[in-house]
From TrEMBL:
<comment type="similarity">
    <text>Belongs to the AB hydrolase superfamily. AB hydrolase 4 family.</text>
</comment>
<dbReference type="GO" id="GO:0047372">
    <property type="term" value="F:monoacylglycerol lipase activity"/>
</dbReference>
<dbReference type="InterPro" id="IPR050960">
    <property type="entry name" value="AB_hydrolase_4_sf"/>
</dbReference>
<dbReference type="GO" id="GO:0034338">
    <property type="term" value="F:short-chain carboxylesterase activity"/>
</dbReference>
<dbReference type="InterPro" id="IPR000073">
    <property type="entry name" value="AB_hydrolase_1"/>
</dbReference>
<feature type="domain" description="AB hydrolase-1">
    <location>
        <begin position="43"/>
        <end position="176"/>
    </location>
</feature>
<dbReference type="InterPro" id="IPR029058">
    <property type="entry name" value="AB_hydrolase_fold"/>
</dbReference>
<dbReference type="Pfam" id="PF00561">
    <property type="entry name" value="Abhydrolase_1"/>
</dbReference>
<protein>
    <recommendedName>
        <fullName>AB hydrolase-1 domain-containing protein</fullName>
    </recommendedName>
</protein>
Length: 231
């Protein structure tokens, strides 16, 4: 876990998405050409633009003449949670919309992406979904837990238990700020378990699993309806 957090400064526009919103931190030189390269960064679980490792890359990239956008996912770095939906490694919709927004705002720039940990997992999943139609000029995956099942098992071994509990505390801290949004949800949810999670697995079982099932069911329903419409 990064220590000594200090709030990163810069423009923080809120981007309204389908089913929610995120906040972006945009940093660039005072005078820069429209075609300057753009780096989009996706931090790790509960991370954001205030984290030391993110600010370090931000400063280095700016010193090389890059614009930098940090994606503060729902609830992270004071990004607003406006709907009863958290971000997770299984959902690439927010990243896809943010990249589309950046490309629309800077059409002459080559846009690259870097992700850490869960942010890297989301990024690589997005790359796989986009295949050869991906609009990014390049991407870097850092410390990616490619197999989340194995990563979860490792969380319960040795010192990783400390890290697991720290991440769970960070998740529940964010969640409790917006808990009222999640009251009365139908489906496979256990909101009290998510709010009082002592491990990342507890939080996933209380909230993330229910969200993933909802997205999967909606996707299957859409595909079924599409099939019916073409008959």
């Amino acid at each position: 876990m990064a220590t000594g957090r200090r709030r990163a400064t810069g423009r923080r526009p809120k981007i309204s998405l389908i089913g929610g919103s995120v906040a972006l931190l945009l940093r660039h030189r005072l005078f820069c050409a429209d075609q300057e390269p753009m780096a989009s960064t996706d931090p790790g679980l509960t991370g954001g633009s205030d984290d030391t490792y993110v600010r370090h890359m931000l400063l280095r990239a700016r010193s090389k003449g890059w614009r930098v956008v940090v994606i503060n996912s729902r609830g992270c770095a004071d990004s607003p949670v406006t709907t009863p939906k958290f971000y997770s490694a299984s959902f690439t919709g927010d990243l896809r919309q943010v990249i589309g927004h950046i490309l629309g705002r800077y059409p002459q720039s080559n846009v690259y992406a870097a992700g850490w940990s869960v942010g890297a997992n989301i990024l690589v999943r997005y790359l796989g979904e986009e295949t050869d139609k991906c609009p990014l000029s390049g991407a870097v995956s850092l410390c990616n837990p490619f197999n989340l099942v194995i990563a979860d098992e490792d969380f319960h071994k040795g010192f990783n238990n400390v890290y697991d509990r720290a991440l769970a505390r960070a998740l529940t801290t964010i969640f409790k700020k917006h808990a009222l949004l999640f009251e009365g949800l139908e489906g496979e949810y256990d909101i009290p378990k998510a709010a009082n999670a002592r491990t990342v697995r507890d939080f996933d079982e209380g909230l993330t699993r229910g969200q993933t099932l909802s997205v999967l069911c909606a996707s299957l329903e859409a595909k079924t309806l599409g099939t019916i419409d073409t008959v």
